[in-house]
Amino acid sequence: MSNAFFQVHPTDNVIVSLKELQKHERILFKEEHIPLSRDVPSGHKIAIRDIAVGEDIIKYGFPIGQASKPIQKGDWVHTDNVVTKLSGTLDYQYQHKSQPFRVRESTFTFDGYWRKNGEAGIRNEIWIINTVGCINKTAEILAKMGNEAYQEEGIDGIYHFPHPLGCSQLGDDLHNTQKILGRLVEHPNAAGVLVLGLGCENNFIDTFKQVLSEIDEERVKFLAVQDVEDELEEGLDLLGDLVSYAKTFKKEPIPKLV
User: Fold this and answer.
1) What share of the chain is helix, strand, coil (3-state, %, to 5)?
2) Which of 32, 79, 154, 211 could serve as a FRET partner for 2 with CA atoms 20 to 30 Å apart?
């Protein structure tokens, strides 16, 4: 006799085997001995009562299909006796609701930084976002130099985000990379962002700007390293401007919205 099974939800009319069970083996379910009519592989369903043709197969407390033939207690419930309840092609239409989503302020707060666009961050960092993986090392060096040069109160550090993308990407592949990097640029934990480009990549700066919803020139600086004589010197100067801007933000209690 075996108890190697599990009932996911108390209203289910099937249980799930936890190991391979053999034909004629008996399982004890709620003080009832149920003999198996077939071998049942591990992870498969077993009927715990008779199920008529067209009746729902219930698992997780919800219908997952319907019986295509009579199923007896102890039967293996599988594709040979279950069919989907879906049929035909469904048409979906979006019905816009003009009623705005309403939130209310709670009495709880967290310490954070209000940004000019109304968002709030919990850190006050400077981020270096490079448009192409070819300059990961340049971004790393700039972050190290910036942290050494601008160890000032109110700044939580200067960070870069290395990645291998942006060079020869095309189409949706390139666009998805741009969207991910763009959301990093717009993240409220970054008080200031230096976007670092190379100049020969497909994800060059002017193209990348098109995926940004807005560009605050105080908060976001751009540098194409092939366009300057010393990218580290130029980059460090831009980081200094961003640090000065970031210091204008002060940590304060921010209400949580519920």
Assistant:
1) 20, 30, 50
2) 79
